[in-house]
Amino acid sequence: MNWYGKLNILSNITRGLEWMHESGFIHYNLHVGNILRTGTGKTIITDVGIKKPTIQFTSLLRDKEEIYGVLPYLAPEVLHSKRFSKASDIYAFGIMMNEIISGFPPFNNVAHDSELAAEICRGTRPEIPEHTPSLLTELIKRCWEKKPIDRPSAKELNELLTQWWNDLQNDKLSEINVQCCDEISRNSSTFTPTPLLYFSHPEAVYHSRLLEFDEVPRSINTNRRSKLLNSFTYSESRRPFNYLLNWLHSLKKLKKQS
């Protein structure tokens, strides 16, 4: 998919998110599984405001509020203090934005467990591909800020992404157009490098579920990446055979532990 197509999808999502937030709603469980693309090219956000399963189990009636969602899309303050807000929706959008650009699900190379939750709270984020225009890279990073107040609003996101999409559509000489053209020339293609094949960790889970972790650290911004996550990069992911070997190795370790 080219940059025009990706910005079209992203601007569609932020348009719906802006309307939702301006109307006083929080999504609570924003991830790509709740984004639908119609036959006419429209992008729709679904499952608005669904924080817990429809069937209320006895365990949900406790005073303690569990987290329900998809771990890689949950903001640090949600994992640590269960504080859902419009800003936590923005964090989730930043994860989706990087996923749409990269073609990879977030944290697909590691188990989605308490260790990953702790790493997210310590500042670990999915890797942004090198080919991403700097304007988009900086916007993604702003969505991932430690302090919710430092993240952009849905209104700002919609205005920026819609403007950039219009610039590309009208072939307007603008910074986003120049950056996308530079990226295209570097890759000698009108398409950004999106993987055709990748392998996910056997304990990577991308459907909504109840998440109950022991106490996780308070969020901090850091450039540090754990040894576990540092073993995988996007350049490596373009060599599926090597990644398959790593995946099989992790699977063997899991079997030994069981």
UniProtKB/TrEMBL annotation:
SUPFAM superfamilies: Protein kinase-like (PK-like). Residues 1-165 form the Protein kinase domain. Transmembrane segments: none annotated. GO terms for molecular function: ATP binding; protein kinase activity. InterPro entries: Kinase-like_dom_sf, Prot_kinase_dom, Ser-Thr/Tyr_kinase_cat_dom, TKL_Ser/Thr_kinase. This is 7295_t:CDS:1.
